[in-house]
Amino acid sequence: MRIEKRILARVEGTAYLELEWKDGVISDARVIVAGSRSLEKALEGRPVTDALVITPRVCGICGHAHLMASVLAIENALGNPQINSEPYKVVLSFFDARLSQVG
Amino acid sequence: MDSRYFIDLDQWNRPKVFYSTLAHWGCTRNEYFEWKVEAERLGSKKGCLFYYFGCRGPLTYSSCNKILWNSVSSKTRVGTPCFGCTEFDFPRVGLFETKQFANIPAELPIGVSKRGYVMLSGIAKVFAPERLKIED
User: Fold this and answer.
1) What is residue A90's predicted lDDT score, i.e. its pLDDT?
2) Does the structure's ipTM exceed the value 0.85?
3) Using CA atoms, how far apart are residues B60 and B90, in angstroms rounded to an integer?
4) I need a labelling partner for A56 at 20 to 30 A (CA). Which of A29, A37, A67, B102 fits?
5) Total structural domains in chain A?
6) What is the CATH number of domain B10-129?
7) Are the Cβ atoms of A54 and B93 closer than 8 angstroms?
8) CA B109 to centroid of chain Cα atoms
9) Which region, left, alpha or beta, applies to residue B90 given φ > 0 means left and ψ of -120 to 50 means alpha?
């Protein structure tokens, strides 16, 4: 069984939720943002660190999630260097705080 | 109409109440800027971010350091350079670096001449107090 919720009001109507059910249990869930905001284009030809400033500004609600995404992408591009885990814990708890504020 | 209902705007239609002073105003790193003691690395609690890290504080009209974000903090207070996001040319390319020309920032604080900047910064660097140079 497949249920699609077309509008997530909190995401300003630009995203939708897709759920797949199996015997009354959700087997898969996806949040789909089909519309492009062309942010990748805006970042072309720029130093990587610019992404840390520009990507969070794509959305007023989930700026921090976009920031985390660009941090992870940059780390991935640099071959995932070993990073001191202490500041990372602060970053992640800040991320959680942001989530609870939105939710 | 009653003049109470008019909001004074600047040339970019921003309310002058918030956009007549620079982000530099009220920055807690002002003394470092004054004596040209530069931050050596990002995250440092000391040093000015203007020379190496692309801080736009002296070039940006905003009240970030005056009324503060949530009355608590601002970019430069936590050690991130100002990116000039209230200005028309945001985002510039290379937000974390200061473009230099012959060791002088390509863009100087608003209203400061190149000659004045070079002379004053030279003198300031020579006479900078030691207490500002000590890294914690």
Assistant:
1) 82
2) no
3) 10
4) A29
5) 2
6) 4.10.480.10
7) no
8) 8
9) beta
The pLDDT score that the predictor gives to residue B56 is: 95
Residue of B nearest to A44 (CA): B93
Angstroms from B119 CA to nearest CA on chain A = 32
Per the CB < 8 Å rule, is B91 touching A47?
Answer: no
Q: Which two tokens stand for residue B86?
A: 């209230």
Q: Do residue A44 and residue A5 come from a single domain?
A: no
Are residues A20 and A58 located together in one domain of the fold?
no
pTM: 0.78
Q: Would you say B49 and B55 are in contact if contact means Cβ atoms under 8 Å apart?
A: yes
**What digits encode the pLDDT tens for the residues B64-96?**
999 999 899 999 999 999 999 999 998 899 999
Of the two residues A78 and A100, the one the predictor is more confident about is A78
Is A45 in Cβ contact with B94 (below 8 Å)? Answer: no
For residue A50, the chain B residues in CB contact (below 8 A) are: 91, 93-96
